[in-house]
Amino acid sequence: MSAPCYNLSMRVKANGKLNLALFVTGSRGGLHTLDGVMHSVDLGDELEITESAEVRVTMRGAECDEKKNTAYRAATLVKERYGLALSADIIKRLPVGGGMGGSSADAAGVLVAAERLLGRDLTDLGAEAGSDVPFMMRGGCARVSGTGDELERRAPLSFTALVVNCGQVDTAACYREFDRMGHDGGDPTAAIGDVCRGIFPRAPFNALLAPARALQPRIAECEELAKAHGMSIYLTGSGGCMFVPDAPRGAEELFSAAGFGCFTVRSAATGVEFLA
């Protein structure tokens, strides 16, 4: 890290992610433990980070309760630990409640900007800010386990996927539903093995599909539409976004005609990018 440099304003792009495998292994300290693979994608929120008199977060493109979001939590941790107050003005592009890590990405953007200002590694604060934040700070491809704090870096993959937004799913509610349904969490071994061999998983796995489907009926509608047209479709995170790898021609028009929001993403090698 470079020497500390204050009184700067900077712009960053905080990339989202897709879960290529997600296995629920148990619980620890009131949080579910996981095993799986996350991969960054090139769609992300844009943040302007500025040193300020007090911690402040604003957001365009989504509703924002300033003091009840992960970016504010991250900035507060920086202020408490290092005395540096930051304001974050966020342009929201990642779907809210979509399972693409939007809230964690914003926190990662704040922390990576703070790293440059302070000249120190803040990964430890990422783990305090939220489970997915340590991965989102560096991005690329990683096997993620524990409560999100155990990362094994993998070589980034190259892929394109059509993302289909089925509507918001609350993450906490999805895990409660997972517990209520009594699922065993599944086995992501095949998907992780594919990633370790440098190939996109032949069958991305997500243990939260059943509870997410129970909370958001449009997920089942999306699955049925994909199946009827010979497409395999997978859930990312706790939903409600799903993705079709290497979607066939006409797939976006098909889902759009059924009332789903769609967009194409490509793999990305980093989590947070500095913009000019």
List keywords for this structure.
single chain; 276 residues; alpha+beta; 4-stranded antiparallel β-sheet; 12 strands
Give a short summary of the structure:
By secondary structure, the protein is of the alpha+beta class.
State the total count of DSSP E strands: 12
Q: Output the radius of gyration.
A: 18 Å
Biggest sheet layout: 8 strands, mixed
Distance between the termini: 20 Å
Tell me the series of helices and strands, N- to C-terminal: EEEHEHHHEEEHHEHHEEHEE
Low-confidence stretches: 1-6
Determine the fraction of residues in helical runs and give it as a percent range: 25-40%
Total helical elements:
9
The overall average pLDDT, rounded, is 94
Q: In percent terms, what proportion of residues is strand?
A: 25-35%
Structural class: alpha+beta
Q: What is the 3D form?
A: globular
Tell me what you see in this structure.
- With 276 residues, the chain is an alpha+beta fold.
- The chain has 9 helices and 12 strands.
- It has helices at residues 70-82, 102-118, 123-129, 133-138, 171-181, 189-196, 209-215, 217-228, 251-257; strands at 9-28, 31-51, 56-60, 86-91, 141-146, 150-154, 160-165, 205-206, 234-235, 241-245, 261-266, 272-275.
- Strands 1, 2, 3, 4, 5, 6, 8 and 12 form an 8-stranded mixed β-sheet that branches. A 4-stranded antiparallel β-sheet has the order 9-10-7-11, with helices on one face.
- Helix 1 crosses helix 3 (123-129).
- The longest helix is centred in the middle third of the chain and has 17 residues, at 102-118.
